Amino acid sequence: DGGITQSPKYLFRKEGQNVTLSCEQNLNHDAMYWYRQDPGQGLRLIYYSQIVNDFQKGDIAEGYSVSREKKESFPLTVTSAQKNPTAFYLCASSIKGNYGYTFGSGTRLTVV
Amino acid sequence: AQSVTQLGSHVSVSEGALVLLRCNYSSSVPPYLFWYVQYPNQGLQLLLKYTSAATLVKGINGFEAEFKKSETSFHLTKPSAHMSDAAEYFCAVRQTGANNLFFGTGTRLTVIP
After folding, report:
1. What tens digit of pLDDT does each residue of B9-62 get?
2. Cα-trace Rg, chain A
3. Is B61 helix (H, G, I), strand (E, B) or coil?
4. CB contacts, 8 Å: A58 with chain B
5. Can you tell me the distance from the alpha carbon of A71 to that of A61, in angstroms, rounded to the nearest whole number?
6. Residues B34, A100: C-beta atoms closer than 8 Å
7. Burial of B54: CB neighbours in 10 Å, binned 0-12, 13-18, 19+
């Protein structure tokens, strides 16, 4: 079955360390997105990519980086510059046009 | 600019009662509108979407929503709540030609037995 896979589901890191969250899709979707979710704040867009080798900053890109070397993959790196990285991170994908997203099951990152 | 406002961060209903979750949008042109549901520690699942066809949209799990341009609203309803409906619900908007969805802050639905 087609879908989006995020791994790992839970991730613990020490403060000051970079960490990379994986997102893979086999839906043949062109666009991929990363959102951060905090209680009471809904979903905030970190980065998105419409095509391979191209991506744009979202509303809260500071302290994050991404790459899009393959259509299927859109990894997110949370750098040490991100001041409050503990959150639930959601990856999504969509086809071009005015359609909704398909979401992964999320990665809960805890920085201690 | 486009935005979404969900009135009520928490809604409680009794089992079997009507569910009404409110969503108002702000957009210069009629947008595409979506409702998603999220269960704890999971991703979001699409419930239904409005894409300028019928104004009354039926979704999964017995939910439906009505697009009302005059009220700039897209409220989500279900005639009879089930315990399994307890979750967080997000309204989202996407303007024609826009690259991404804008999400509301969510409404947590509690169903009381």
Report:
1. 999 999 999 999 999 998 766 688 999 999 988 999 999 999 877 889 999 999
2. 13
3. helix
4. 100
5. 21
6. yes
7. exposed
